[in-house]
Design a protein that fits this description.
The protein is an all-alpha fold. The protein contains 14 helices and no strands. The protein is globular and about 60 Å long. Helix 2 crosses helix 12, helix 4 runs antiparallel to helix 10 and helix 12 runs antiparallel to helix 13.
């Protein structure tokens, strides 16, 4: 099973913040740099994301609607249900981080990669991930404000202004300028990808430096951390089962169900970390910990599933025979272009 090298870098950044946290003037400098990095991240997201491709997915409303419901309805409902695990298994801060994890958009790159490996509907995975990211820019902060409320660091008018200025305005600016800079962004994808990742590392370092000043590691014991991993494993398992068998119940073919499973069961680390920094402020360190752990877990588990799907031609024929839509001709509105 793969270990994402970037997760190793993130954990190393957390260790650096624990050993050498930014303090005093250094803390003010890193905080300002982190704010600028978040704005740059969302500007680049806007410059990369093809709005036309994402909105074209509206033609395939059943599939993309299913992914959105999984991402922004079922996941949050399960997160709210986990409230009963406090304080037996989870502390309140860890639960808040777990709930926030359930609110962030789906991934794009890993959903596409695993769908491709499993021989699923790759164009659908591209549109689903893009559409989820586009919707999440607005929906995730709104859900966080409604479900986390003041426990998420205080959602005052000032918080709303920060969300708009640091997330939405740069994203819209990237979308507006995409016509002129889209080619440059595409040609320098690798270099700008390093900028993305470096910016996120800075955000993590700043968040955990602030957390060290508040003594966060006194709030997370090894037992609580183990309990969090068990809860997240159960959450991922439930979503993988629901997306696969729910897709069958809704009459989707095997290739579409593969796209639904991988796009509907994932959460984006790249979008979630900077969002948490804006939404939680000084409390972001514990908020991002569940997301970091879930990200690595979903990569490891989905890699195994994707390889099994690719080696299972018998399963493909069985699914086709058992599908509720077998023998039914789909209309244009129900068909996703291959």
């Amino acid at each position: 099973m793969p270990i994402d090298p970037y997760i190793v870098l993130l954990l190393a950044t957390v260790c650096l913040a624990a050993l050498l946290p930014a303090r005093g003037t250094g803390a003010h400098v890193t905080s300002g740099a982190s704010t600028a990095a978040i704005a740059l991240l969302f500007f680049l997201y806007g410059a990369r994301l093809s709005t036309r491709e994402a909105l074209d997915g509206l033609r395939h409303w059943r599939l993309h609607g299913t992914v959105l419901v999984c991402t922004f309805v079922i996941f949050p409902v399960l997160g709210l249900g986990a409230r009963g695990l406090v304080p037996v298994l989870l502390t309140q801060p860890l639960y808040q981080g777990l709930l926030f994890l359930t609110l962030v958009p789906s991934t794009i790159q890993s959903s596409i990669a695993f769908t491709s490996i499993a021989r699923g509907n790759v164009p659908a995975a591209i549109c689903a991930g893009s559409f989820s990211s586009l919707v999440g820019i607005v929906v995730t902060p709104l859900l966080a404000a409604g479900l986390l409320g003041s426990s998420g660091g205080g959602f005052s008018a000032d918080s709303v202004v920060k969300i708009v200025l640091q997330l939405l305005v740069p994203f819209l600016a990237g979308q507006v300028l995409r016509r002129w800079i889209g080619g440059f962004v595409a040609r320098h994808k690798k270099v700008l990808g390093l900028v993305d990742r470096g910016s996120i590392l800075l955000v993590v370092y700043t968040a955990f430096s602030e957390g060290m000043a508040q003594g966060i590691w006194h709030q997370v014991s090894p037992v609580r951390l183990g309990a969090l991993l068990v809860v997240e494993a159960a959450l991922l398992a439930v979503m993988l089962v629901l997306t696969w068998y729910g897709g069958r119940a809704l009459g989707f073919g095997r290739e579409d169900r593969i796209a639904i499973q991988f796009a509907g069961s994932k959460k984006s680390l790249a979008s979630g970390l900077p969002m948490a920094s804006v939404l939680f402020g000084a409390h972001a360190s514990l908020a991002v910990l569940p997301l970091m752990l879930f990200h690595q877990m979903q990569l490891m588990v989905c890699a195994v599933i994707a390889k099994r799907r690719a080696r299972d031609p018998e399963g493909a024929r069985k699914d086709a025979a058992e599908s509720p839509a077998a023998g039914v001709v789909q209309g244009p509105q129900d068909r996703v272009l291959r």
